Amino acid sequence: MAKHYEMWEKLGLDLEKHDQFLNPVPELFTEIFIKQDNRPEGMDYYDFVVGDIHGVRVKELVAEKDKGNPVISSFCAFVPDELIIAAGGASIGLCAGAQFPIPRAELELPNDICPLIKSSVGFKLERVCPYFEVSDFVVGETTCDGKKKAWEFLNEHISTYVMELPNTKSASGHQLWQSEIERFKLEIEERSGRKITTEKLAEAIKLVNKKRSVLERLYNTRKANPAPISGRDTLLITQLAFFDDPARFIEKTEKLCEELEARIANKQGVVNSEAPRILIAGTPMPLPSWKLHSIIESNGGVVVCEETCTGTRYFESKVAENGQNLAEQLVNLSERAMNINCACFTPNEARVDDILRLANEYNVDGVIYYNLQFCQTYNMEYNKVADALKKADIPVTQIESDFSENDSGQLNTRIQAFLEML
Ligand code: BJ8
């Protein structure tokens, strides 16, 4: 793990705590990722990014800021990266999946809220995330109760702009989100002093769509049996997509897809074709939450798809590229988000359809419904999803967990039993 003390110090990180946080990562990463058999060569790039996770990319962002370009961070798939990029800025997904900063967050926030919220806030309080520190401001959204109250608290520590997401996909819901997109555009322009033009926005829309398309191409390779890449490697790639430079990410991932497509042509898999194929559906798994994938795959299964925001919900919905002027482009941006079937919407029937479709397309043997502790919206949708899967004769089980290792033994036993049953 490369050290960049001078830069980290300038950014205001707590160097001692930062070392405590990063020091265990190489061993963990080797255990979960590097030791896998038969990994695609193209994973080298992503291994390199993780090996310097708080280095090279942060340096690039510091350089962007020095040029006067905004660095804006967010926590949700609804926030339109395109507007940030069109203003010449960098858009970073901050959603945190580490246990390390949670005890600190629990000194300020209730214990019984979602670990994702506690981890995000804890990273700021502990000053161990350079992406937070390099950000001009962060963007929250009113997706769930925990998040919307967390922004009030976070705003005391870093400027936090909040987008009001509707609860329904009604006509007024569409209108509200459209006006929120317009308000966000004005906010970026005002804070950055940059004008967002039709041309710049058209380029940004194309770029981000291309990033989504390359992820789709990557996911499509996993439909093959045997799967040419492991679930944990794909999860890692998706997690890195949230903060890597988009053009470089596209180039590296296209190259990896070529390798995977050649593997498929040669019937070369990362596991044999008998391995139980698993779809994970549910809450996101931000970096570095690798626990569930690692348990499933070390027990002989292979994760072939994730219906999560670190999975298909991140890339399936694209922005229409036919906007002729800013007004049309902003409508197109807002429509993309309204096509994401997050459990924060009511009703949300289309999510059940998505899960059935994905189970079918990826030819899965079973579904693991993943619920972060205290996430009510996803938890409450479980029964509906489970009923539909049972009707379709697809085995399903629900796992509730957090980012700690406390439940690893218990999860291992449950997942082993589930895989044996398939
Ligand atoms: S679009 S899934 S990224 S809101 S924070 S709702 S887990 S209790 S993250 Fe999400 Fe956007 Fe939807 Fe995707 Fe539950 Fe936790 Fe809330 Fe969460």
Automatic annotation (TrEMBL):
Domain of life: Bacteria
Keyword Iron included in the entry's annotation: yes
Family affiliation: Belongs to the FldB/FldC dehydratase alpha/beta subunit family.
Entry keyword set: Iron, Iron-sulfur, Metal-binding
This protein's name: Benzoyl-CoA reductase/2-hydroxyglutaryl-CoA dehydratase subunit, BcrC/BadD/HgdB
GO molecular function annotations of the record: hydro-lyase activity; iron-sulfur cluster binding
The keyword Metal-binding is assigned to this record: yes
Cofactors: [4Fe-4S] cluster
PANTHER family associated with the record: 2-HYDROXYGLUTARYL-COA DEHYDRATASE, D-COMPONENT-RELATED, DEHYDRATASE SUBUNIT MJ0007-RELATED
